[in-house]
What we know:
17% strand; elongated
Amino acid sequence: MRALPHSTIAQLLYVTDPYLNFARLVGEIDLHLARHCADGHRLSWDCEDVACFDIGSRRILISKAEPPPIGYAACLTMGCGPAPYARHAKTDPCMTGNPQKICALLVEGVLRHYYTDTVLWQNSTAPLDSELADALVEALPPRAEIERLTAGPRHAGPRHDPASRPRPAPEGAAVNDHPDLPTPDMAALRRVREALYIPDTSPPPPASQQLRLAAHAFNCTLMMVSLPVGAAVMTYSLLRGEDLTLSARALALTGTAIGLWQSGLGGQLGALI
Length: 273
């Protein structure tokens, strides 16, 4: 393979299945690039588990290992570097940043939805394609060795701080980029919620004249269809006030019951009971 300038690659390893929808992830990245890259981009699939985005002289690689490495439930490979034809392509304004920063932003976005403690970073001069993705997965060390390398102290700092974004490590190194965030103050959050959502204890407004007449019309119709039910609803309305929702529901349920009974289905259900 023809050597290219260095590409930055991150491998996200999951001990438990994150139920990652790979096609949806690729679609979200494709939509984001379509919105922010005015000169356009090209999405290509090397296979159903490897997608490449070519934006000017840059290439972004997204790959899901199938089957995953031994000891892990899933492995997601993400890389950013020069496209194979970079010398013939113009630099896109939306991809002028360092490949390390671009790859770090991709990893940070994925970790928000599919978090893992194990992220392996490395550099490569090979073209970003399916062959490189497969080779990186095959070259992964055993899980015990990876866990030993990632057992160091956690990176501290708020996630929104730019300095806390995952940074590439030397080739073949493993890092743990989970920030040690403080425990949320639940009491303060509860007070803020109570201040924002004040319960409405005011009595409901009285029904308009039109709604009251409509409720009485429903009650009269219900008395013609079923006198006991209609009389009960009418009495409730006179004592407690007109309730159009109650009258409509009683009329609908009574009509449905009478229809089922006259169709013969009600008799069959009664015999079964």
